[in-house]
Automatic annotation (TrEMBL):
Ranges for region Disordered: 17-64
Superkingdom of the source species: Bacteria
Protein name: Lectin
Bias (Low complexity) ranges: 17-36
Length: 209
């Protein structure tokens, strides 16, 4: 009996310490995820405008000029023209003509690209490809209406000598120089060839032929 009483006393003394303290309410609240960190501005910002692919080159970016091409100037001698070009130019006059073309090594014929020489002087550039751009922005493949808009009030029109419906669109140097730009359109109204040079050579319809 004494042993039973002792055990009961021990249990009664230990009971108050058995219960765990209540957890504060604040500790049981779920953790709040912090706002994500971002380097973007809070306000709506319109997306950047994508660059226009292949924008039309400015007039200053072309090598063709109303007074020549690159470092070459109309009126230069053949030797001066070759030196100004700085590379190989093929071509020489025939026995019965003083008019001929100097061609870069990559050009197959003057209608594609060539420098006209007459009486020993550089007088004209012929262009038949799309990469070259005329001063003012005109180029192969443009319509006659596009040419008129690029050179407002400056285009003199003449009928094509060989192609029905084709035209020659002639533009004099707006700065008052001697140079003249001529766009040649076909029956479809598109520029297929253009040339720039000084009269009378720039107006030779057949070139040197």
């Amino acid at each position: 009996m004494l042993l039973s009483l002792g055990l009961s006393a021990c249990q009664r003394e230990a009971a108050p310490t058995a219960a765990a303290p209540a957890t504060p309410a604040a500790d049981t609240a779920p953790a709040v995820n912090p706002a994500p960190i971002t380097d973007q501005p809070a306000e709506n910002v319109p997306p950047a405008t994508a660059p226009v692919s292949n924008p039309p080159p400015a007039a200053s970016s072309t090598l063709a000029r109303f007074d020549g091409y690159g470092d070459m100037r109309f009126g230069m001698s053949v030797e001066q023209t070759r030196q100004a070009w700085g590379g190989e130019l093929k071509g020489k006059p025939s026995a019965d003509s003083t008019c001929y073309y100097l061609l870069p090594i990559w050009a197959s014929n003057a209608r594609e690209f060539g420098f006209m020489v007459e009486d020993g002087k550089f007088a004209r550039v012929d262009v038949g490809g799309e990469k070259e751009v005329a001063p003012g922005g005109g180029k192969r493949g443009m319509s006659a209406d596009e040419i008129r808009r690029l050179y407002p009030g400056k285009v003199e029109e003449q009928p094509h000598k060989y192609e029905q419906g084709g035209k020659y669109l002639r533009v004099a140097d707006p700065a008052g120089g001697a140079g003249v730009l001529v766009f040649e359109t076909g029956a479809d109204g598109k520029v297929g060839h253009w040339r720039i040079g000084v009269p009378p050579q720039v107006d030779y319809v057949e070139g040197c032929f």
